[in-house]
């Protein structure tokens, strides 16, 4: 029975279903979930990459089962936020839910699923349309539906730090680009250029530190192991330059650090 065909409460509870069962529940009625087609399955993996790696995201899941009430069990294609690493259904609803809609999608059930997720507390539901032009329908509580097209970006303030290009939910290379940027930011870098600049700066700093030691050795000034370690560990370009000047002029290694 399709949940959309009955307003009466069905006989099933979410706790009666097991992980791996191919059913969702709406008002106690089972909804059979067909295996995903190739295009749909590809979309799930591609779309999960830039979403799960966003610097603000702590958890995400594919086909995670959410049960906000005993008679409802819904599994968005991608859930962002609220996915603990533990067994069983998840109580409540994800902050962001993504559904891929392909040929064969039951539009009545999809509409009901959106309603149930938003009612349960989901803040954004993105419907990624796989039929026709690339576009994502954005559903939010008490707001009209918006459509965001290819070439534009999607935002989820308070859930995602970075905008998500619509095309990154379809195209693997676009998804990789967004994912790479996310991973850089997770490590504290604004861009790949920032990584390269740091590498160049670290190379310069290491070269300056080695030059200080060579100058001291050439002047027969013997640095202790502790002093050598301090020089090699320094990453302050201005301080290293000052030490290099002192290494060439001061009478002792101790004076270098005065």
UniProtKB/TrEMBL annotation:
Keywords: Endonuclease, Hydrolase, Nuclease. One of its GO terms (molecular function) is endonuclease activity. It comes from the Bacteria. SUPFAM superfamilies: Restriction endonuclease-like. CDD domains: DUF820-like. Residues 17-156 form the Putative restriction endonuclease domain. Pfam families: Uma2 (PF05685). The keyword Nuclease applies. InterPro entries: Nuclease_put_TT1808 (IPR012296), Restrct_endonuc-II-like (IPR011335), Uma2 (IPR008538). This is Uma2 family endonuclease. It comes from Pendulispora albinea. The lineage of its organism: Bacteria, Pseudomonadati, Myxococcota, Myxococcia, Myxococcales.
């Amino acid at each position: 029975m399709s949940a959309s065909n009955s307003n009466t409460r069905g006989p099933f509870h979410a706790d009666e279903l097991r992980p791996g069962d191919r059913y969702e529940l709406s008002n106690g009625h089972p909804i059979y979930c067909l295996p995903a087609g190739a295009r749909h399955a590809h979309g799930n993996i591609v779309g999960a990459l830039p979403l799960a790696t966003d610097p603000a995201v702590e958890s995400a899941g594919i086909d995670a089962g959410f049960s906000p009430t005993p008679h409802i069990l819904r599994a968005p294609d991608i859930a962002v936020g609220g996915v603990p690493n533990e067994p069983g259904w998840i109580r409540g609803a994800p902050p962001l839910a993504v559904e891929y809609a392909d040929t064969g999608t039951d539009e009545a059930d999809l509409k009901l699923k959106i309603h149930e997720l938003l009612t349960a507390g989901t803040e954004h539901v993105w419907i990624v349309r796989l039929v026709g032009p690339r576009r994502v329908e954005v559903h939010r509580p008490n707001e009209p539906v918006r459509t965001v097209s290819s070439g534009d970006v999607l935002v989820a303030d308070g859930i995602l730090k970075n905008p998500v290009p619509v095309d990154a939910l379809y195209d693997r290379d676009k998804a990789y680009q967004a994912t790479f940027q996310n991973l850089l930011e997770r490590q504290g870098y604004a861009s790949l250029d920032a990584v390269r600049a740091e590498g160049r700066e670290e190379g310069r700093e290491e070269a300056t530190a080695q030059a200080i030691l060579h100058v001291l050795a050439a002047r027969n000034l013997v640095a202790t192991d502790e002093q050598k370690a301090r020089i090699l560990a320094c990453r302050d370009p201005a301080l290293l330059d000052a030490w290099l000047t002192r290494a060439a002029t001061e009478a002792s290694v101790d004076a270098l650090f005065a």
